[in-house]
Amino acid sequence: xxxxxxxxxDVTVELVDAMASDKAVTKAARVSSxxxxxxxRDAGLINYLMRDRHGSPFEHNSFTFRxxxxxxxxxxxxxxxxxSYNEESGRYKQLDPVFYIPGPSRNLIQTGKxxxxxxxxxxxxxxxxxxxxLMDRSDAAYSAYLTMIDNGIARExxxxxxxxxxFSSMYVTMNARSLMNFLSLRTKDEASTYPSFPQxxxxxxxxxxxxxxxxxxxxxxxxFIQNGRVAP
Amino acid sequence: xxxxxxxxxDVTVELVDAMASDKAVTKAARVSSxxxxxxxRDAGLINYLMRDRHGSPFEHNSFTFRxxxxxxxxxxxxxxxxxSYNEESGRYKQLDPVFYIPGPSRNLIQTGKxxxxxxxxxxxxxxxxxxxxLMDRSDAAYSAYLTMIDNGIARExxxxxxxxxxFSSMYVTMNARSLMNFLSLRTKDEASTYPSFPQxxxxxxxxxxxxxxxxxxxxxxxxFIQNGRVAP
Amino acid sequence: xxxxxxxxxDVTVELVDAMASDKAVTKAARVSSxxxxxxxRDAGLINYLMRDRHGSPFEHNSFTFRxxxxxxxxxxxxxxxxxSYNEESGRYKQLDPVFYIPGPSRNLIQTGKxxxxxxxxxxxxxxxxxxxxLMDRSDAAYSAYLTMIDNGIARExxxxxxxxxxFSSMYVTMNARSLMNFLSLRTKDEASTYPSFPQxxxxxxxxxxxxxxxxxxxxxxxxFIQNGRVAP
Amino acid sequence: xxxxxxxxxDVTVELVDAMASDKAVTKAARVSSxxxxxxxRDAGLINYLMRDRHGSPFEHNSFTFRxxxxxxxxxxxxxxxxxSYNEESGRYKQLDPVFYIPGPSRNLIQTGKxxxxxxxxxxxxxxxxxxxxLMDRSDAAYSAYLTMIDNGIARExxxxxxxxxxFSSMYVTMNARSLMNFLSLRTKDEASTYPSFPQxxxxxxxxxxxxxxxxxxxxxxxxFIQNGRVAP
Lengths: 232, 232, 232, 232
Description:
The structure is a homotetramer of 232-residue chains.
Chain A: E1 6-8, E2 12-19, H1 22-33, H2 42-51, E3 62-70, H3 71-77, E4 84-87, E5 98-100, E6 109-111, E7 118-120, H4 124-150, H5 155-158, E8 167-174, H6 176-186, H7 200-216, H8 218-226
Parallel strand pairs in A: 1-5
Antiparallel strand pairs in A: 2-3, 3-8, 4-8, 6-7
């Protein structure tokens, strides 16, 4: 039997649609204050809103992403409740044989104490070991999945055998405030006011989302960083 | 002293920005099912999602409205928690002398029992009475407000004297699912599966919002109506 | 190597704590209406609130559950955003070898069309096939997990090999309104106004949650059923 | 006509019900980590969760308050969306003649710049002026309200004349995480990491809520303060 199985070491993030700009932040903020709309003061206003944690003006916008990532990433992602989700369903369709394995640059060894783990590189053999085990087990699991499907077992039952490194895809829609909260928790940065220790794979997703964010709302992004990556 | 006071019998709803289409609903839904993207089946899919209350595909969109309405309308509006708000603040700016009075077509007399009130027209004298009282009291309240301001009293204290028929303005951002929930509760329609008895003034706001909604998402709106105005 | 692996065909739901009663619903509702607190009218009031979808009085209560179920159940569960979660983390602890397999009464064969699937029993051989495959693959996956752990690979990496039928546990806290929404979507009942087709395993969780709910809020539960299991 | 009007300079906060303890925080946190339940380490764990902003373990609890405060306070309060509300309705009942006026200790004069206003005491005459104006206008407004009611005008129309210093009452239910967010924004404290400049009257409500919070969850409250009153 030929699975044509695919192993990936990366993730995909595409921007499907967006309604977002720095200008919309300042316009919304000025509804509250009644202040005159002065473009030359926009940057200062955004800095002030970010610094003093006036978050609501950052909500009048919307980003829709299509994301491909392994299930263990989506499990963490969906803990973020101020967002809208539609994920590929293993109940409604047969899942494709695409699985995640850590690439050579993925740190594999955990050190440090609870709550502040650090990850350091493994040896080349460590990477080989992990990749080989994951490839073997993914392949065997997917074969078992197909065997059950071929025997008429319901997809929702057959999928129980699949490991959490199988890829899934989803649409997710968030506003900039929720997105900044996501980024503050799902990226690691020495300069953050509050430390975060995300799993590398969700950080890979977050980094790609942040690139879109900084492109659409560069001033907001700049002051998000300058103010310690604390979501307002 | 000249207040240049304004009395309005209407409300304002402007669409500031939108990211919305029927197509985005079906694209999000097909992420889940993995079904082929067939435009000729879009209407049927939207009807199915609405009827069986699969609400999440209706969330990947966004409408930002600027609304001018009296405070008693905003008090009801902001009970809707799946939305983003920025409202004019009486702490940061001096409020303008614009007040709501019921127009001639506004039913003034309440009949029926708790939970299912009906409103019927009053006499011409009823309308005159209400308008005259509201105009007199609004004018007196606003003069008192200015007196306190002129005496150096903080705006946030002076505003305590103002009645709930004073106008305010706000930005509000919602997705279509939350908007349909708002519309189902804030409009009255004999054909609704679940009856709602909104105050007329918030219904005036809702009707204007619904016009934008039906213009941007006509198929979604059509099946919202056909399925009894129940938000999915 | 001895995994002492455990296979379960059931789920666990324990009530950790609750603050809930029918009386609290009517007390909250009467804050709005200003009506006298008449115990003899409580049932009628709850029926009215449920029928006309006045949901807010059902929110002033709280249920905390501890749940043990396979990961594929938690994946569906956590799509419910009006709830609070703390789940066992495969990053912070080594996961135990407990896996789900469908019991003899679990229907294995899917019929019907998209959106309205029905499940019918498989043969005894079907059950054997599914159980054997899941046991074999779970055992092999867990051995692979241990091999990686034993070689010093980080837990968060090693866990990638584990299938979605591995058990996890979590605390979840919800109010009665959110709980009724969960029950309406995650149980199948011919008498429901809106049909739902949940996966059997999350329905097993939902049924146990519903038992606690009906015990703490019997009148609310009664009218939830009488009004077609539509969350207000 | 005799209104028997009442003027208050204070607010009321009663705890209706609670399901809350420091212990429930650590139990929920240890579900995630799988760590042993060690009471002697509870305080350290709570400090760690607060400091590094692991907020979810603080959500498995619930406080229901009954609050009496003027409408302008409720307007600010209800901007907090992670909470459940039932408020007295001017559509369903005739409102009582109870109005707020600032007491002698209420600072009346605003200084400083936008976003960082300070309030300083007014003179005795300032207080007299504000109290006298508010009492006169409240009395006149309430008389006008009764006149409309007596003429058969619907309550929801008649109430438009009432000022925002009229008292209302509500039930509000929140968990500790949402409550800490509320307290961080609605109290002023030099030691706060992020400055807040709440209106004094909502701060009066917040202070009474905080007293209940510190009584039910003293360790959580202690570390909330030690960590700069930043909600985790």
